[in-house]
């Protein structure tokens, strides 16, 4: 298997950096050219080292490491299938259940099961694999944008709260795990990981202090900044909005060379003081720009040497493209990688392409990949669908990485080094081309997800149940819900969920606004923990809104869909709308609107661990 280049060179001269880049690009050439051989070896390695784990033994794999036996013997699974094993590990069973390596921690996915974050087991060495994927990004980028080693990246990176399982393992999001690891904290000098944010500001658990100090450091070093970004588009826009709200305080700090007293974390203060110097001229400049009526192009105005915005805008994040274009004056939006808590998957080898054309090349050393062909009805899913268990024939339909067909859509299935075997990730991908023998995929969607603002992923069933709970508030007024749909409104910052409700009113008692507000809150209380965390802790999602629409609105919606070619027999009310003319139609018929009056309840960790945290 081609060896990944080690990050040991000290690139103090251009020559070293060039050599390092060359080696990295050669690694990509090698693994993509030999994709099938690499995949075969990855599977052999995973299965041989885990031959004695309970999960493989009880399914009768008997130490086989070849693809054919593996595919014949092992079922294709979802999270719910392995949840009993995960629960045992979470409760302290340290026997080799899924992996022969000790489970080092759980990564809490933004995908949920039963309203709670999914727990993905991981092992220590996975951090190395994640670091490897990160190390590919800048050598690829430098082929298209030269000179990125001559300045800094202003990235807004954050950690989130963590919890302990009853068995004592840490459970936290994958990025929190990565930023807290020595791979990130003690990274060797590299001009490509030279960020404006000191580690202490990224690792500060208080989100206000973390954002404030990162913004302050970014402003102080504004001329050195060559690229800006965050993980997802929503996070970057949140940073711009933060600046809009707090630039006066920030300018004051820059003018005086002191830090605002709300920043109380001592390690953050010390780290910032190494960067912050009194600079009245810079403060005047920032103030003059922020005072202007329009914030169009604020990124290029304040950070004039920025060459691109590094954020994920594929999938649901594409809803933020117009806002990013506005703030950045149309700088290239670069999506560099595709990853998850289960496993990091791949990189974009053509990073300056348009967001709509982004494709990710899966790196064959990361995991063993299989693909389940999917048929979608022109991208429209209007009925509630729950992932079904695959029958034997369907399990046989899974194809290997090098066998996928151009233009075909597939659901991604992974077998990882940390103990997931033929696990359905839930993402739908389309083959857009090939790099040597390795396919490149457009990200199409996450199965079943209807609403998303930040890292929340709300599916139709969750939405339906939440609405069902809320409408109980209407019963005393003789009102029932005739129809509903929803919309992720990202024109407000932070974005928020909007529910359009058409009511059947049988009684004469008017419904007071407070009842609708209670409905809003009940929906929020009923949604999954990632949504509630976004509302409560990260403040990345705004209060949920119910818009009551005139009677007959949903008939109009049907007429409109039919005029666009929908079949009258098969028409079902979509439970989520995105198409602008439909949203306009609904808004034009809204008669009243109500917001959730307060935040729903949320606490770190799983509900059942509440006593342990
Ligand atoms: P999590 O496990 O919470 O980190 O979420 C991982 C999921 O985020 C993936 O399975 C995708 O659905 C989504 N995701 C990650 N990277 C991308 C990307 N580059 N484009 C679109 N969606 C992505």
Automatic annotation (TrEMBL):
Q: Which UniProt keywords apply?
A: Ligase
Cite the GH3 C-terminal domain residue spans from the record: 462-579
Keyword Chloroplast belongs to the record: no
Q: Which InterPro entries does the entry link to?
A: GH3, GH3_C, GH3_M
Q: Name one GO cellular component term.
A: cytoplasm
- The source's domain of life comes to Eukaryota
Q: Give residue ranges for domain GH3 middle.
A: 360-446
Know the name of this protein? Indole-3-acetic acid-amido synthetase GH3.6-like
